Amino acid sequence: MNFSYLVPCEGRRNRICLVRGVTTMNSKHRCVKLNDGHFMPVLGFGTYAPAEVPKSKAGEATKLAIDAGFRHIDCAYFYQNEEEVGQAIRSKIADGTVKREDIFYTSKLWSTFHQPQLVQSCLERSLKKLQLDYVDLYLIHFPVSMKPGEELIPTDEHGKLIADTVDLLATWEAMEKCKDAGLAKSIGVSNFNRRQLEMILNKPGLKYKPVCNQVECHPYLNQSKLLNFCKSEDVVLVAYSTLGSHREDKWADQSSLVLLENPVLCAMAKKYKRTPALISLRYQLQRGVVALAKSFNEKRIKENIQAFEFQLTSEDMKVLDGLNKNVRYITLDIGAAHPNYPFSDDY
After folding, report:
1. How far apart are the C-alpha atoms of 200 and 319, rounded to whole Å?
2. Is the pTM of this model over 0.90?
3. CA dihedral 160, 342, 192, 208 (to 10 degrees)
4. What is the pLDDT of residue 254?
5. Structurally, how many domains does the chain consist of?
6. Average pLDDT, whole number, for the chain?
7. For residue 234, what pLDDT is reported?
8. CB-based burial label for 22 (10 Å; 0-12, 13-18, 19+)
9. By C-alpha distance, which of 304, 307, 264, 301 is closest to 286?
10. What CATH number is associated with residue 211?
11. 333 falls within a domain
């Protein structure tokens, strides 16, 4: 899986898809072909923001991202901003900037909806907020099942997570039904380790393979073992926290290293006359990883789309490989006691 050679995607205006040995025709909207035949742009725009950030900011940033050239928008029920993001997408359709089929929109099934009978209702809630007929990709957000209800993170009086026991294979069957119903074009997983992904892939009577596994991935956590496994199974690895800069108290280890201040990355940025963020994004694209870039800053949004405009040498790719420290910013410790907590395994 290499994103260097791309041609226009069938049925997608201005889309580009992967075909080996064909010269690149355009610098924007490059796509990878998924195992179900659909196409995913290899550079996506992330919309998560901490609770203190006004929800309207996600909508404003999504409009800026579409204007800058992003066509892959990554969101989730858990982010609680799909209404604003949906409005932004629809406004860009209304003003003629894009058509619905030009946008690749991802949403995610939250952990309080893992019970099979609840799966479709979570997607329908997202669609209602978005005012869209379908999502392009629907993911199981996190393998840790939580008590159903309106609370996003249900906890007891001691602040301990109230977990639920659900067979994720039954959850996956309900995801397959969402695809059959036309509510999601493609389905996949997020934050699954190799063992959990393999469990889905080896499911008796599997109808649809996950098209992707979205995980934290950046030069300090390059996920090389998981990436190789995903490639061997024709599952795309999608990287979040690609810039390693997520510092929210609730989820992130505040003592962890700041990736974009790494001297090797900064020196490389100087060499290529780019930003450290662009070096990090380009690194992922050249490894065959779909990269999500999150910023609500107009200048940085416009800058991030430039990841297609240069190429790192194979020597520099090896140097960046050497930065791996297995540092995970998003540990989601609240779910650590759950049997499906994914981050205890090696990968």
Report:
1. 34
2. yes
3. -80
4. 67
5. 1
6. 91
7. 98
8. exposed
9. 307
10. 3.20.20.100
11. yes
